[in-house]
């Protein structure tokens, strides 16, 4: 069952075609990745799915409850991580009892009372995901959530995304430049080239190491993504 769909979606900025008649669905409880070089249209697709931009043509179907982190999340730097969560829960009429549950889920207890302005990039990403989980969304839209993180923080985000999928049934749409990370977390990865879907790699949990995502990428771009 699909939780979201792109149906013949195109996007133009003036005469430039950024997305060219693309269609795909996001299945319930899956992590769908979208991979491609800069300028391929990944972020534009994310913004359209998250209602931050409108398609020039085509239709988008999305669930009632969805959250998106496009680029870096923003917070009130003078407030603690917990107070940021409480403030957002109040502003969105979300159940405040979720806040402590989210803090435990993300293992943020050691620093949740510190000012958000003092957080590392990895801590900010986790807090951003925590904010996005308020209201128990069916779909998370994450634009390069591990970009710029150190190796340990990347592993923590990877494990978090898998927990959200496997334990809580959250569907996730994720973009990245890092091919290895996409292969580690995604059930399917779309290759986006010149605004078109150039290929799709389905990845089996039991056989992740043998999924030829890099081969598919090389066939389209003649090189490789970051590893």
Provide an overview of this structure.
By secondary structure, the protein is an alpha/beta fold. The chain is 33% helix and 27% strand. It has 7 helices and 9 strands; from the N terminus they run βββαββαααβαβαββα. The strands form 2 sheets. A 6-stranded mixed beta sheet has the order 5-6-7-3-8-9, sandwiched between helices. A 3-stranded antiparallel beta sheet has the order 2-1-4, with helices on one face. A hairpin with a 2-residue loop joins strand 8 and strand 9. Helix 2 packs across helix 3. It is globular. 39% of the residues are buried. The mean pLDDT is 91.
Radius of gyration: 17 Å
Order of helices and strands: EEEHEEHHHEHEHEEH
User: In total, how many beta strands?
Assistant: 9
- Give a short account of the largest sheet: 6 strands, mixed
Q: What distance separates the N and C termini?
A: 32 Å
Q: Structural class per helix/strand content? A: alpha/beta
Supply the number of helical segments.
7
Widest sheet: strand ordering = 5-6-7-3-8-9
The helix content, as a percent range, equals 25-40%
Q: Into which percentage range does the β-strand content fall?
A: 25-35%
- The parts where pLDDT drops under 50 for at least 5 residues are none
Overall geometric form: globular
């Amino acid at each position: 069952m699909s939780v979201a769909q792109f149906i013949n979606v195109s996007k133009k900025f003036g005469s430039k075609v950024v997305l060219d008649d693309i269609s795909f669905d996001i299945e319930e409880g899956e992590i769908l990745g979208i991979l491609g070089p800069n300028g391929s249209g990944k972020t534009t697709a994310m913004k359209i799915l998250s209602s931050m931009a409108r398609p020039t043509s085509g239709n988008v179907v999305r669930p009632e409850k969805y959250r998106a982190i496009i680029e870096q999340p923003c917070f009130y730097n003078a407030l603690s991580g917990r107070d940021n969560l409480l403030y957002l829960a109040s502003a969105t009429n979300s159940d405040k009892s979720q806040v402590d549950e989210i803090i435990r889920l993300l293992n943020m207890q050691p620093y949740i009372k510190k000012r958000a302005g003092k957080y590392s990039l990895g801590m900010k990403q986790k807090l951003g995901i925590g904010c996005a989980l308020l209201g128990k969304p069916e779909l998370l839209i994450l634009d390069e959530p591990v970009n710029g993180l150190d190796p340990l923080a990347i592993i923590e985000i990877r494990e978090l995304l898998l927990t959200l999928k496997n334990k809580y049934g959250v569907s996730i749409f994720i973009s990245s430049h890092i091919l290895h990370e996409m292969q580690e977390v995604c059930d399917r990865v779309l290759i986006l080239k010149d605004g078109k879907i150039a290929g799709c790699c389905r990845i089996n949990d039991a056989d992740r190491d043998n999924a030829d995502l890099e081969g598919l990428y090389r066939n389209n771009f003649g090189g490789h993504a970051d590893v």
